[in-house]
Specification:
The longest helix is centred in the C-terminal third of the chain and has 14 residues, at 125-138. It contains four helices and seven strands; from the N terminus they run H-H-E-E-E-H-E-E-E-E-H. The chain has one domain. The protein has helices spanning 6-9, 12-19, 65-75, 125-138, and strands spanning 23-33, 36-45, 54-61, 84-85, 92-96, 99-104, 107-115. A seven-stranded antiparallel sheet has the order 1-2-3-7-6-5-4, with helices on both faces. The protein is of the alpha+beta class and 139 residues long. The two termini are 14 Å apart.
Length: 139
């Protein structure tokens, strides 16, 4: 996998500006799911209490296309709700609850937001789409 730093592609300041949330730190990582490599960044708030911890994650699959979309939904996404198409984002995009997954050719970018125990209603599909596009533009 090419060396992708999702946290550098989507700086903490941008996340705070778009979401209006008080994220205070970001940490990056990589993994392989279903044989498809991915890079990620987790954004968190200062509150360490799991009942109210502010968390948002961004996943980038640099290759894999439709298989990467399926891998994301299987391993990370869904929130227990139906997937809805999101027009105007990448080649295709779907949202479900607190997730937005967009495909740009073979590249797949996913944003998932949540406060442990409760998903935040004010983190709209439009805000998630802005973040997905910002990551895509930076890569």
């Amino acid at each position: 996998m090419e060396n992708i730093d999702v946290c550098a592609a989507l700086p903490l300041e941008t996340v705070v500006s778009v979401t209006g949330r008080s994220f205070t730190r970001a940490s990056s990582g990589t993994a392989v799911k279903d044989g498809i490599p991915l890079a990620a960044c987790a954004y968190e708030g200062a509150d360490e209490d799991l009942a109210s911890m502010l968390v948002m994650s961004v996943f980038v699959y640099p290759a894999g296309g439709p298989a990467a979309v399926d891998s994301y939904w299987t391993n990370f996404g869904g929130g227990g709700t139906s997937r809805m198409p999101v027009p105007g984002v990448g080649d295709s995009a779907e949202s479900s609850g607190h997730d937005l997954v967009a495909r740009f050719g073979q590249e797949v970018i996913a944003v998932v937001d949540g406060i442990h125990g409760t998903y935040a209603d004010d983190f709209t599909v439009d805000k998630r789409a802005v973040l997905v596009q910002a990551v895509h533009d930076a890569l």
